Amino acid sequence: MKHTFLIALLTLIVRLVVAGVFAFAALPKIKDPVAFAASIHDYQFIDGALVSWTAVILPWLELTIAVGILIPTIRRASAACIGLLLIAFISLHASAWQRGLDISCGCFGTATQPTTDYPLLILRNLALLVAAAWVLWRDCTVKSRTSTIAH
Amino acid sequence: MKSLTKEVFLIAAITAVGVAYSIFSGQAPAPWVEAELEAGEIRQVDARVLNPIWIDARSETDFDSAHVDGALLLNESNWDSGIFDLMGAWLGAPRPIVIYCASESCDTSKRIAERLRAELPDAEVYSLHGGWQP
């Protein structure tokens, strides 16, 4: 019983941390999409109108899934989206590192942050990925257990 | 699986509402509008990438109430003192110069850019397309 409570508490803390990081990352980008577009442009991965669309859609998606991971109705899909986004971010940062791009990460919106420390950034995102996977696994397990009991 | 799809649709719908709010409230430029640039103009997104010296060509009152971080005040009424500050910044670390005024319709930034091109022929000088709003 105590063990179950501790796991539930740990899951709640992990959930809150992931939600906090994503919400904290989304808000400055929503406030200043032009600065975020400049950061996206720096990665030299996409160009033109796609940069503008990404700069306006991505922050709202981040905010939605940050809140969504706390709401039972959409928390599984939110955790899955967070995981997919983190995989995309890790790939993008690895690619920028490999190409030797001397840019700021743009993770929290402004293009004036110091130059990215790629290994640290990738490690941080890997840790968040593990956290998101844990939350998703817990949500799926609890959901399937609940369905079994209901049937 | 069906409920997961439903969750994804719900997330997409909420995101779409947020995106629509950003675009239609004017917080974000409409991504589908590719604005025409005149010669010597630059878009804000491109200007930020250059890490330029920002020049605020609006009035001193507007400058005091808000301005781009690190911008220098230079307009027609404070030309002598403003150009002195700009020369100091540009000679210390030469980089592109971007001048902004308040809106799409203001011409001050273009006039200041013309004067700067004449006074600093080696400098890369742009006026900001669409102006700057705090």
CATH superfamily of the largest domain in chain B: Rhodanese-like domain
The helix count of chain A comes to 5
Basic shape of chain A: elongated
- What is the rounded distance between the termini of chain A? 24 Å
> Helicity of chain B, in percent?
40-55%
Give the oligomeric state of the chains in this entry, treating copies of one chain as homo and distinct chains as hetero: heterodimer
Overall shape of chain B: it is elongated
Name the pair of protein chains with the most residues at their interface, and give those residue counts.
A-B, 32 and 23 residues
Tell me the total number of β-strands of chain A: 0
Total number of distinct structural domains of chain B: 2
CATH class of the largest domain in chain B, anyone? Alpha Beta
Enumerate the spans of chain B where pLDDT stays under 50 for 5 or more consecutive residues: none
Instruction: Identify low-pLDDT runs of chain A.
Output: none
Mean pLDDT, all residues of chain B: 85
Strand proportion of chain A, as a percent range, falls in: under 5%
Proportion of residues in β-strands of chain B: 5-15%
Q: SSE order of chain B, as H and E?
A: HEHEHEHEHE
Question: What class do helices, strands and sheet pairing of chain A give?
Answer: mainly alpha
Q: Mind summarizing the main beta sheet of chain A? A: none
Overall radius of gyration of chain A: 17 Å
Q: In this structure, how is the largest beta sheet of chain B organized?
A: 5 strands, parallel
Could you give the topology of this structure?
The complex is a heterodimer of chains A (151) and B (134).
Chain A: H1 2-31, H2 33-42, H3 49-68, H4 75-98, H5 118-150
Chain B: H1 2-24, E1 41-42, H2 44-50, E2 53-56, H3 60-65, E3 72-73, H4 79-92, E4 97-100, H5 108-119, E5 125-128
Parallel strand pairs in B: 1-5, 2-3, 2-4, 4-5
